[in-house]
Design brief:
This protein is of the alpha/beta class. It folds into 2 domains: about 180 residues, FAD/NAD(P)-binding domain; about 150 residues, FAD/NAD(P)-binding domain (3-Layer(bba) Sandwich). It has 9 helices and 21 strands. Strands 1, 2, 5, 6, 7, 8 and 19 form a 7-stranded mixed β-sheet that branches. A 5-stranded parallel β-sheet has the order 10-17-11-12-13. Strand 7 and strand 8 form a beta hairpin. Helix 1 packs across helix 8. The longest helix is centred in the C-terminal third of the chain and has 19 residues. The radius of gyration is 21 Å and the shape is globular. The two termini are about 40 Å apart.
Length: about 400
């Protein structure tokens, strides 16, 4: 059994950022990361990969290159938590104890929840595609290039997901692609969403409704995708209020799969009823175990699950964790800031930034609800550099 001063479960955006920030402190604690993956992905760029702007390879790096100096890397899966014993058991059976635990394993993609989805993704020419993994993102560009007429459907589930705006970003890019190739009147674009509105923040919703109108997109809300009949190219939806099912034919369907807390968290004492790590929404300290913290997609923080949110969460969590380590009460508060760079076409973007109260929390001295090339360039070229060379190095900005 090995003991660690600070043990971090998860070596994604949240885990690496927190580890780097801790190690950058003058009185840096000993830090260990549990992470099974050998690759690290910058997932926000997958929207543009799916639209043919970039090759997927630009999103991939070796995990080893981003483990911060001085941090120990355990390449295994966390399996069970024993918080009363300050212990984590790995899939290999090894048990590791800790003084302080940070839980940041990210979100689970539930591909199996939609019958026909995995079958469609595995079948070339099926029209079924998804930007939600490195293995499937190329399917989107392949499907998009193959559409010449008919219907292109873009779905969004009722579950929490990575970046709430992502399902519509690829839709706007597809609509722009059809427009540029003279197909606007030949391809019907449908947003079949389990949600109730196009976007939750009023200021940006008004702007996005104009984008929808400009492209002639048909919105169909309260629609949960429940099955894909791959051979017939039919998608089955269930209305979230009435339970009524309906079928829609498609030539292309981009699926945002349902997502949830990782299974090992769902069965652990750390999770709330939905399986998310139960933390105070201000301090990110666990509601029951004061030496445990959580941030990012696996936490119960009631904000959008984005890398931008982690950028603001991580420094606050680190300050609060260091305070607890020194015997103090955590006093730094996270205000729920998150960001959603809403790509509205090739070369245009609305940069939505907002807080827990769904109030805009903008960074720039202009109206960010307006579509701009500068903000598109920020997403395509600036933010990836800030991610690899800033966030993951523990730099605060």
């Amino acid at each position: 059994m090995a003991h660690h001063e600070v043990l971090i479960v998860g070596g994604g955006t949240a885990g690496i950022t927190v580890a780097a920030m801790l190690r950058n402190k003058p009185n840096a604690p000993e830090v260990t990361i549990i992470e099974p993956s050998e690759k690290h992905y910058y997932q926000p760029i997958w929207t543009l990969v799916g639209a043919g702007v970039f090759p997927r390879e630009i999103s991939e790096r070796n995990e080893a290159d981003f483990i911060p100096p001085g941090v120990t890397w355990i390449k295994d899966y966390a399996d069970t938590f024993q918080p009363e014993k300050n212990a984590v058991t790995l899939r290999s059976g090894e048990q590791h104890t800790y003084d302080y635990l940070v839980v940041a394993p990210g979100i689970q993609i539930d591909w199996d929840k939609i019958p026909g989805l995995k079958e469609g993704l595995a079948k070339p020419g099926s029209g079924v595609c998804s930007n939600y993994s490195y293995d499937t993102v190329n399917s989107t560009w392949d499907a998009l290039k193959g559409v010449r007429k008919g219907r292109a459907i873009f779905t969004a589930p009722s579950t929490p997901i990575k970046c709430g705006g992502a399902p519509q970003k690829i839709m706007y890019l597809a609509a722009d692609y059809f427009r540029k190739h003279g197909l606007k009147n030949k391809v019907e674009v449908v947003f079949a969403s389990a949600g109730t509105v196009i976007f939750g923040v009023a200021k940006y919703r008004a702007a996005l409704e104009k984008v929808v109108e400009r492209y002639g997109i048909r919105t169909d809300f309260y629609q949960e995708l429940v099955e894909i009949k791959v051979d017939k190219k039919i998608a089955v939806f269930e209305h979230r209020q009435t339970g009524e099912k309906k079928e829609m034919e498609y030539d292309m369907i981009h699926v945002t799969p349902p997502q949830s807390a990782p299974d090992f968290l769902k069965k652990s004492p750390l999770g709330n009823d939905a399986g998310w790590v139960s933390v105070d929404k201000d301090t990110m300290q666990h509601t029951k175990y004061p030496n445990i913290f959580s941030l990012g997609d696996a936490s119960s923080l009631p904000t959008s699950k984005t890398g931008a949110a982690i950028r603001k969460q991580a420094p606050i969590l680190v300050k609060n964790l260091m305070a607890v380590m020194q015997g103090h009460t955590p006093e730094e508060a996270y205000n729920g800031y998150t960001s959603c760079p809403l790509v509205t076409g090739y070369g245009s973007l609305i940069l939505a930034e907002f807080d827990y109260n769904s109030q805009p929390a903008e960074s720039f001295p202009f109206d960010q609800a307006q579509e701009r090339y500068s903000m598109y360039a920020l997403k395509a070229y600036g933010l990836p550099q800030m991610y690899w060379h800033g966030m993951l190095k523990g730099r605060e900005f």
